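Dissemination and training. As part of the outreach component of the grant, students in the summer workshop were shown how a complex can be specified as a set of sequence lines and then modelled as a single object. The example used during the hands-on session is reproduced here so that future cohorts can follow it. Participants entered these lines:
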Amino acid sequence: MSGLEGNLKSKIMDGDGMRRALTRIAHEIVEKNKGTEEVVLIGIRRRGVPLAERIREQIEAFEADALPLGILDITLYRDDLSMIAVQPVVHESNVPFSVEGKVVILVDDVLFTGRTARAALDATMDLGRPKKIQLAVLVDRGHRELPIRADYVGKNVPTSSREIISVCVQEIDGADEVLLLEMETDK
Amino acid sequence: MWQHKDLLGLERLTSAEIEHILRTAKPMKEILMRPVKKLPTLRGKAVFNLFYEASTRTRTSFETAAKVLGADTASIAVAQSSVSKGETLLDTARTLEAMRPDLVVVRHQASGAAEFLANHLKAGVINAGDGQHEHPTQALLDLFTMWEKLGDLAGKKVVIVGDVLHSRVARSNVWGLTKLGVEVVLIGPPTLLPDEMRVLGVECRHDLDRALPGADVVMALRLQLERQQAGLFPSLREYSRAYGLTSERLKRTGKPTLVMHPGPMNRGVEISSELANSPRAVIEEQVTNGVAVRMALIYLLTGGTAHVVD
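and obtained this result:
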């Protein structure tokens, strides 16, 4: 969601806040699945990927097992392709392991309408038949348009439809923070 | 980013547009390697293949590409259609348009046929070969294959050898390669590589052995056997001795040179059987890459009408 234009309203999380939220999610994943034996992580491009990497680091630090991590690009599964004029850029997916019988944790930065999560569910299912799929997001901002909810949430942020949540990560944006922006009034 | 309704040739594309196609083909190839090769991306879109010239590989490649992306396909081959009953290209096109395709893939023996269709159809048009003009998807799959194997192509040397005069594959490759900064050398006997070919702006020579040193890629063109009857070369054996690719000859490049061929091959004529089977030859991979590149193009050419949201 980052890269969107808008006026800054407030900072919702700083680097420490993000780290704590991801640490908690890492613990919840292990607790809910009673270990990590069947767990695999899949980050949704773009910002779900660094977040998934951090969750993996955390889990590996206290559970020792190495956790497989894949990258999913959901562009080809979007439901609005026949509406938009210029096709969005497709990037490579890289899931170098079988999801068959695994507990797949999808990781994304923001849960909003639920359409990205829907696309990611379909994309994951085309890779095989996982035992379960769970969803982890750093921010849940509401406004769902599909019957989808997250299993792990860093922070619930009630928003208006004119507001934008911008998750920034060191690897892509040069800083760790979550910002609440207000869309500029129509030009 | 991609803004065109049609793909008619590489002559009119910018290097950025060509690179965008190649970058889009990479994730498409990853999908082709999956056990389940089916996407919902183009569900409800229709792609028509209109082939006025016999073709199995190109048509099958387009059909596969469209189907993997979830589109529906219909193929119209000239021999079984109303074309043989005297219908004009325009009337055929209008009839097809009435069936509401989103994309029409056309191969025709006349140069410019694809552009003619593009000007009359609301649907996007992909040129799958028009006369001696261009065969852009073949050149794009060749570029993709080189790019995957060699990385950045700027400064690389590519030798294209054979019947350049009649080859739309060679023309499209020259446009694409030169735009990406590749040094291209065309090789063939004077009858099949006349001096006028220099208008393409690349080096044209008649001695293969002298052009090979330093070549990163050598591409053999298919020799159409009917050219012999036209008197353009004396015998297959003599052609092969001067222009046929062999492992022995390839040592002159002094590099692990890639060997390419657009197919179908005449083994023992433009390329030795032994070289075609060697690990240097990437001919089968070219076929796989052809599907990936065509998937990328079909995807890029079937956008909607509104503006991008994200």
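Residues 305-310 of chain B have pLDDT under 50 and may be disordered. Students were then asked to discuss how this feature might be tested experimentally.
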